[in-house]
Each structure stands twice: as C-alpha cells, then as structure tokens.
Amino acid sequence: MNSNYLRGLSSDEYTALTKKLHMIQHGVCYICQKPIDLDIHTTNIDHIIPLANKGKDSEDNFALTHESCNKSKKDADLTVARSLAVLDDIRQEIASGKLGKSKTESVSLRHVLEYFGGSKYEMHFKVENGVFKYALPDMGKEDIVSVPIFTDGLSGEQTVFIELPIEYIFHDELINPRGINSSINKLVKEFYQKNPQLHLSLARVDGNKIKIFDGQHKAVAQLLLGQKKLLIRLFIQPDLDRLIITNTNAGSNLRQIAFDRSILRQLHDTLYEDKIRKYQKEHNLKEDDYSFSEQNLVDYFRGEASLKTLIINSIKNQITHSPQNKLRTYIDFEGRAKELPISYSAFDKAFLSTLLSSSNIMTTPINYRIDEGENPREVEQRQIIHLLNIIASEIYIDKFKPEIGVYRIEQRIIKNTASDITDDHLAAYRISKEEILRNWVGYLKELIRFLLLSKGRPLGDGCEFQIPFDEAMWINITNFVRNLIKLPLWKNREFAETIFSGKNNYDYWKKVFETGRNPDGVPVLAKPLNYIEMIQA
C-alpha cells in the first residue's frame, strides 16, 4: 500500500480504522459487496480514488476490502473495480441457473439487464403525424410523451432518440447474440471518467418490445456504473434484413475501416496543445510563455490520461506530417492501399517507436535555446526528418514506382509477368516489409549510438537524435543506407519462391542479418551485417 497515512498508524490505530470502515460499509467488501467477517477474513484498506488519480491520502478516501478482492481487482480505482466485480456475480448466477442460458455462453446484455431488474415490460406506443407517442404505465407513468421521428435520407429508415428505463429494454439476440468481451473493462473506465461520446446504443421495435441490437457493450458499461435509464436510437419499423446485413458487415469486412492511426496521432497532438494552454492559464502565463518543461506538465497533470503519450505522439505527428519529410510520400496512411510500399503500422513501429523513446520527457524548458536552433526537441525532429529524407532518396525516390505498386509482386515474378518491375522497385518493395524494416532501422539506431559513444558523447536512453550530428556522422549514415539497399538479396528474383514467398517474422530476419542465414541454415547474405563495413563509401 502506497500510503504514508497508513504507514504512520500504529497497530491499534490500524485495527480501529478497519473496524470503523467495516461499520461504515455495513459489513460488506467495497469491491464484491459480500460480507466481511473480521474474525475470519483477511482484509485490506485501499484508496477509493488512487493517489495517481489525485485521490486523497486520508480516511474519507479509504475503503475496506477482502484481501483476495483487492489482489484480483480489475482496476486501480475501487469504484471501477466494484463495477467490474458485478460481472463475476452475473457469471455465478448464470452457472447456478438463476439467469438462465442464452445463445452465447458468456455474459451478454440480456444477463446484465435481468440482473439489474431490466427487461420486464413491453412498450405502449403509436406513430401519428410524424411523431412517436408512448407512455410507461407499468411504472405508473401514464403521461403521454411525444418525440419527433427522423427519416434517414439514404435508407428511408425511421428512428427516434429516446431515453428509456431499463425495465423497458431487451437484448436483441437475433441480430446480435454476441457476449461481452474484455473491452468492457476499458469502456467502464471511460464512462466513469465522464467521457460521454460513446453512450448511444441502437435498438429496434420488435412487436411491443424495445431490443438493443448494436452497442451492447456501451449499454452494459452504463448499467455496471449504476445507470437505470439508457439513451438509444430506436428504429421504429425497420427492414430486419437490412439491419442484420449491416450489423454483420460492421463486424466483418467493414472492420478493415479502422480508425486511421495517423489521424489518432493528430488528435493526441491537439490534446497535448490543450494541456499546454490549460497549464499556462492556471499558472497565469501568457500564451507565448513556454518557460516550463515537459516534465512540469507531466507532474502537474499527474493522474490524468498519460501526458507522456500525448507528448511523444505530438512529436511523432510533427515528424510524420512535416512538409520536409520526403518519405511520407511513400507511406500508406489509409490502409490496404496497393500503390505505396510502407504501411503506417510499419512506419510507426520501425521508425517512430524505434527512434523516439516514450520515456524521454524533457526537463529543460520547452523554449530552451529555441532562437539559437539548439532546442533538444527541435534538433531531434530536424535530424529524424533528415534521416528519413536520406532513406527516401537512397531507396524510394525515382526508384519505387507507385503506378506499379505492391500488389502481388512476388507472384508476378514467379509467373514471369513482371517485366515492368525494375530491380530498384523490387528492392524498395522488399526492404519495406514491416518485419524487415524494424530490423534494419534498429541496427541503424545502434550504429548511431556506437558512433556517438566513440566520439565520447554521453547518452541517455532514447536521446540520440537530440545531439547534433556532424557531417562525418551523416556521411556514415548515408553509406549505411546506400550499402544496405545494394545487398543482392533485395534484387534476387529467385528468392520470390523461397525467402520472400510468405511473411516471415521479426526473429527470422534478425537471424538473417546476424548470421547471413535464415533459421533453417539457408544462405541469404554473403556474410552477416558488419557496422564497420556498412559505413564504408
């Protein structure tokens, strides 16, 4: 327990506090809500709101739990942990037959609704002159409520937005029989932090029942946090086949349309800027005053969404989308494109995550020596972009042809239909595979560390690019990339049926670069990569 308050208590004082909390909580565990027998159970005292989330280290922020519950809790925040513990109770009631089985073997929205007293009554309603009218007489609410009907311009489906007590809500096991998965933990935490953008679920009228067919995790998260009403978008007279097809597509082929990770980087960039503005305002600083450090921000906003992540993502975003970054022309930001060689995932893992340390948060002011061009962050971004431009120049520019692209390259070579694929294009395509990129970019970073250390430069973890490189360094880096792309394996077309016939993992290529052979002992390189040889002109 990270509590100075508790460590300062004597044994008798700790026992007295335990008994006091036991009485306040009516003798039940804060997490599982089951009885605590102080003569039998081993207990813990823990913070309700963690210290990391700015919880107080005082009696009014303590709760008593079973030791086993505390050790197995699913979140550091005891209120969230208590909400998630309810799922264990529901599983036990399913196993005992109290809630019955459904089409899914796991906990579903149906079980959670029934557990909290939902799914009891049918809806009394009618549609009249573009208005949806209803009452809730089973709960003693006879007043007629009228809400406007919206007609979708594309599908023609009619819907209303309505908040209903859970007693009138059912789970649609026809369209969406799926159970609750582990993502519920994240949703509960998100909603508990009062982030409301995910709350809306979709439901349909089936006879006189209101059934949720999409967004069941959102509904369950709210139920676990004690909500007794749910806001839903209700389809009144839906085309059932259309809803089934739409829901199926959303869970299968449309899953490819993921949230663009490069856009997510830019969102983090905006969030970071908001934190800076908030810090300035709360410290009475002008908007052009950046005399504070990244570490000052991290310390001040401790306990909120990881500011370190926001800072590093901001830097990644500025590098990626810089107009000076020539490599970005060859990055596939949208996913599954057939024209560009480097996926955004590969670019992120091989370059951004390798060259930028997520733990390297600056302690110098944000505006430190910025006028002299010696600000560590600016030096870092400038030099990484310079490195990316060297790679673009040596491997891609005037060599890789987007009009030829990356589609079925190896298969075309095997079938002798690749006369338009030049050796330079083939080399650029092959060296861009994620598992290969991560290996050679990692070696390049090791080379840079080696060269800096050989010059007597002290290095912290992940700060290599914050030290200005001299001209000799850049020549060595350029030679490394130039010699790398000249290795015969990238242009060897016979390898299309062997080495490049399928996707090999990171360790496979690590073995190749370290030994010259693949894990089966087949020669791939004339000899292992050697830093000294690779930087020779």
Molecular structure report:
Strands 6-7-11-9-10-8 form a six-stranded mixed sheet. The relative contact order is 0.05. Helix 12 (about 345-355) runs parallel beside helix 16. Helix content is about 40%, strand content about 10%. It folds into three domains: about 5-75, His-Me finger endonuclease fold (3-Layer(aba) Sandwich); about 105-255, Conserved hypothetical protein from pyrococcus furiosus pfu- 392566-001, ParB domain; about 325-535, no CATH class. The protein has helices at about 5, 10-25, 65-70, 80-95, 110-115, 185-190, 215-225, 240-250, 260-280, 295-300, 305-320, 345-355, 375-395, 410-415, 425-430, 435-455, 470-485, 505-515, 530-535, and strands spanning about 45, 60-65, 125-130, 130-135, 140-150, 150, 160-165, 170, 200-205, 210-215, 230-235, 330, 340-345. The longest helix is centred in the middle third of the chain and has 22 residues, at about 260-280. Strand 3 (about 125-130) and strand 4 form a beta hairpin.
Q: Please state roughly what percent of the residues sit in beta strands, choosing from under 5%, 5-15%, 15-25%, 25-35%, 35-45% or over 45%.
A: 5-15%
Q: How many domains comprise the coordinates? A: 3
Shape: globular
Number of strands: 13
With strands numbered from the N-terminus, the spatial order across the biggest sheet is 6-7-11-9-10-8
> Quick check: average pLDDT?
88
Q: Report on the biggest sheet.
A: 6 strands, mixed
Low-confidence stretches: none
Proportion of helical residues: 40-55%
Radius of gyration: 30 Å
What structural class do you assign from the helix and strand content? Answer: alpha/beta
